Amino acid sequence: MKTVSLNANIRETAGNKQVRKLKKEAMIPGVLYVKGSQGRLLKLDYTELHATIDKYGDNVVVQLKVGNEEVPAIVKEVQRDPVSHKIVHIDFQPVSLHEIIHAEVPIVVINGDRAEKNGWVINRQLGQLEIEGEVESIPRSINIDASKLKLGDVLKVADLEISQELSILTAPEDVILSIKQFKEEPIDLIFPQTEPEIIQDSKDNK
Fold first, then answer.
1. Which residues is 133 bridged to in the sheet?
2. CA dihedral of 105, 107, 108, 110, whole degrees rounded to 10
3. What is this structure's pTM?
4. For strand 87-94 and strand 27-32, is the pairing parallel, antiparallel, or unpaired?
5. Are residues 87 and 108 in the same domain?
6. Nearest to 174 by CA among 126, 142, 131
């Protein structure tokens, strides 16, 4: 898991009024959750936070610089605006770099253009894996090279090869993806039958 630095400042209050104020200041509210407490209220620079999460994803260890203190932490939860998908709130959880954690790691398919050129379809059925391991050992993503697959292949969780330092908690029989032949559905040109409309000439009614 990548480790990056991230600046944070203490905020004194919470609530909608505070959120609106932070938005005007281009800051995002956050919480650093600590065992036995309600957590420390934080505020983070909008641009710096988005740049960090966009580049490294949610599976990243951040060295939170709060004043003169540095706290290693992982992203616990990210709340995004349903329309813009921009971050509106973020929660962090302090960790030891050798602590064993559970993480949901996204599955990324690379070199999928080979399948497309052959007229194949990559049928994705699983988007992420639940993994257990030391904080520093958790990968940002699990990459699957589609160029090594052939038509008819069905890739299951049990088929994956990962570091011995990690354990996959997702069921081994779960299907990640399969390679199928693209079939173009025929276009239905049958129109619904309707009764013809009879138009009477007005002369016939005279």
1. 101
2. 130
3. 0.68
4. parallel
5. no
6. 126
Helix (H) or strand (E) holding 32: strand 27-32
- In the chain, the number of structural domains is 2
Q: Which of 67, 95, 123 is the last residue of a domain?
A: 95
Q: Which residue bears the tokens 């991230």?
A: 6
**Under a CB-based contact definition with an 8 Å cutoff, are residues 129 and 142 in contact?**
yes
**Residue 78 structural domain:** 2-95
Closest to 44 in 3D by CA, of 15, 65, 16, 20: 65
In which order are the strands placed within the sheet that holds 100-110?
142-145, 100-110, 128-134, 167-168
Strand partners, 89: 79
Give the model confidence (pLDDT) of 66-107 as tens digits.
Answer: 988 999 999 999 999 999 999 999 999 999 888 899 889 999
